[in-house]
Amino acid sequence: MKTYRIIHISDLHGNGEIIDAIAGEIESADLVVLSGDLTNFGGKRKAAGIVEAVRRLNAQVFAVPGNCDRAGVGKYLDEEGISVDGVVRKVNGYTVCGLGGSLPAPVKTPTEFTEEQLAARLRKLAAQSDTPDIAVIHQPPANSKLDAVRSGGHVGSGAVREFLEQSNALVCLTGHIHESVGIDTIGATKAVNPGAARNGHYALIEIEDRTVTISLKKTNP
Questions:
Q1: Which of 8, 129, 149, 152 is most buried, with most CB under 10 Å away?
Q2: pTM for this prediction
Q3: What CATH architecture is 4-218?
Q4: How far apart are CA 219 and CA 57, in angstroms?
């Protein structure tokens, strides 16, 4: 079986330099995933600049908005048919679902939800597909290697963790907490926070015969 290769980019915050830096890897990937914060408090125009830069290299892109993306970003991703925020899509035999936004941040950001709201949105997502292969969720799961802030506290979502434990997804692509770069296993799901793409971080996910291999990567300064 052919290895399925995903380039995972998160938290660009409007800085698209990484796209040029890893152009060859983006071109050769089977799928490119943007897991939120495409912009830094920007809207449709800023998001379109990022997405189009990626699509010039690879047409197969899925994305969700992050908490620092304004409402126009989610609307644009929907219009382009590449959003997996609250929806399920099929690609190359894989089921992909996602959820954008985050829990309330220390500084108010445009796209935030309470834990209860996240749980309700995840229940609706689970009702569409109880066995997703790839979950794209900006907010990382609670009490994991992916949600620790510099103080050592964990700021992830219990609802996201519960969703992953119940879904048996192959892999979850998350982000949001820039300093919590890592890989973890939640239930049967491998989960990865690649770190902020604006700082050169990204991840390569390879799936072969439903076995997932994740490589954390960083571009040269």
A1: 8
A2: 0.97
A3: 4-Layer Sandwich (3.60)
A4: 17
